[in-house]
């Protein structure tokens, strides 16, 4: 990774290193940001032309074994802030607060609730319940403690990738009480869709049109919880309606294309005008190996040749958002369904989730110029270790897989272990899972799912 003298910001974030005398910007730092926003990533291994291999620890925010200091600088306007999410570690997985853990019970607080308390006192704590148990979350120690048993769990606070939100609601008009009595239109206007230009009651809504559009883009079949005044609501994208969780009042919702304006979601009796989507357009991804979201490309980073790109899919989607698209990847053919947001392998029947996300001025790939995300290339005549992964493609073990999976070992680490005991085994982690690599059988096993993959050791002649 190349370093440069500090300059003006062009993104809302910039990763930097202090070498003891000056702050230096890290070029092509979108890959660092991508990993930092994943709760399962403890850190990232980088290879710099100036300082060699370094490891950036996200939890401690330091460079292991080095005097250099990392820093993530943000550049936001006074009315903007980043959206942070809070996670707890349970059963080898990171769960966001508000989602179900292994007990199938949800915490009484969500990420926004915790973040609000954290902003008030970053050195303090907050208490909450899960079922009939009470817990305390210590912001300084970043741990969650069961107040009955004393059991502790790790906690992480990470920004939502590329999520910049307004500190105050950006609704063109603040939402009134959404009961029937508050939104009765004038005589003769019954059933007419209207957009209010002003709100006299001053009722504050917890979401803006941008928030709704962003969550809709992530999951067009999902739901969104929000509050307006003293009431809470559920907005259902698939049914296009909202429900008052207290009164049960149900209202239709629509998302319309406004002439000379960007797309917006209009609620009856609401004004939800949207800002134009930023440069960068939309990116299409499928949920592939080990749950990692991977962008559609003609030549996948894992070596699979695909007949379409993200741009091809977007063009097809614009023509028919409820349609389908046939394509090939490697030796297989697939069907991509826009309404269900999934893809199906036409031969094997394998089904994978698909998503369409807004790309805000960031590159569509995580390829880095002048940066190697693994240990140095093996010497001439050395050995390389690979596993047979997605679609039968042989992929080398690296600290940071080209598909975005953070692995605890490299091909060199495996070779060193193998030299010590060619009949032994090696335990390691990749993403949220742990694995066992068996040298005698030449296979790896996912310790949680039991998935078994072939492994091979090949002679590498003057190439990586």
From TrEMBL:
SMART domains: WWE. It comes from the Eukaryota. It is found in: Nucleus. Transmembrane segments: none annotated. Residues 70-157, 170-255, 270-356, 371-457 form the WWE domain. The keyword Nucleus applies. Pfam families: WWE, WWE_4. Coiled coil: none annotated. Pathway: Protein modification; protein ubiquitination. Keywords: Nucleus. Belongs to the ARTD/PARP family. This is PAR12 polymerase. The lineage of its organism: Eukaryota, Metazoa, Chordata, Craniata, Vertebrata. The gene is Parp12_0.
């Amino acid at each position: 990774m190349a370093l440069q003298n500090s300059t003006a910001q062009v993104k809302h974030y910039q990763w930097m290193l202090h070498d003891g005398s000056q702050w230096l910007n890290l070029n092509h730092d979108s890959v660092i940001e991508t990993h930092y926003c994943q709760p399962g990533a403890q850190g990232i291994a980088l290879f710099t032309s100036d300082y060699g291999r370094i490891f950036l620890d996200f939890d401690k925010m330091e460079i292991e074994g080095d005097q250099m200091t990392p820093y993530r600088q943000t550049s936001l306007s006074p009315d903007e802030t980043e959206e942070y999410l809070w996670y707890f570690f349970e059963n080898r997985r990171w769960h966001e607060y508000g989602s179900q853990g292994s007990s199938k019970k949800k915490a009484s607080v969500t990420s926004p609730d915790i973040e609000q308390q954290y902003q008030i006192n970053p050195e303090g704590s907050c208490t909450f319940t899960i079922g009939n148990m009470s817990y305390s979350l210590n912001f300084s120690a970043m741990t969650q403690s069961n107040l009955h048993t004393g059991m502790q769990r790790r906690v992480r606070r990470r920004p939502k990738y590329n999520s910049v939100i307004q500190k105050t609601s950006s609704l063109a008009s603040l939402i009134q009480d959404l009961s029937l009595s508050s939104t009765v239109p004038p005589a003769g206007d019954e059933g007419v869709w209207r957009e209010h230009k002003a709100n006299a009651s001053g009722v504050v809504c917890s979401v803006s049109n941008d928030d709704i559009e962003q969550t809709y883009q992530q999951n067009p079949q999902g739901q969104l919880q929000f509050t307006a005044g003293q009431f809470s609501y559920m907005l259902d994208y698939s049914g296009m309606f909202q429900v008052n969780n207290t009164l049960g009042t149900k209202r239709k919702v629509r998302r319309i294309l406004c002439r000379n304006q960007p797309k917006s979601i209009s609620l009856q009796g609401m004004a939800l005008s949207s800002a134009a989507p930023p440069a960068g357009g939309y990116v299409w991804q499928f949920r592939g190996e080990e749950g990692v979201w991977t962008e559609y490309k003609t030549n996948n980073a894992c070596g699979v040749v695909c007949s379409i790109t993200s741009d091809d899919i977007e063009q097809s989607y614009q023509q028919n958002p409820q349609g389908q698209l046939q394509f090939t990847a490697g030796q297989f053919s697939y069907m991509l369904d826009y309404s269900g947001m999934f893809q199906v392998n036409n031969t094997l029947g394998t089904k994978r989730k698909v998503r369409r996300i807004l790309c805000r001025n960031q590159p569509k790939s995580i390829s880095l110029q002048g940066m190697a995300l693994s240990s140095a290339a093996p010497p001439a005549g050395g050995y390389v270790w690979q596993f047979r992964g997605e679609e039968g493609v042989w992929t080398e073990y690296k600290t940071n897989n080209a598909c975005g999976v953070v692995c605890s070992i490299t091909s060199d680490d495996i070779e060193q272990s193998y030299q010590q005991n060619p009949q032994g085994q090696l335990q390691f982690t990749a993403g949220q899972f742990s694995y066992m690599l068996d040298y005698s059988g030449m296979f790896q096993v996912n310790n949680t799912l039991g998935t078994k993959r072939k492994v091979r050791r090949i002679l590498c002649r003057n190439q990586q």
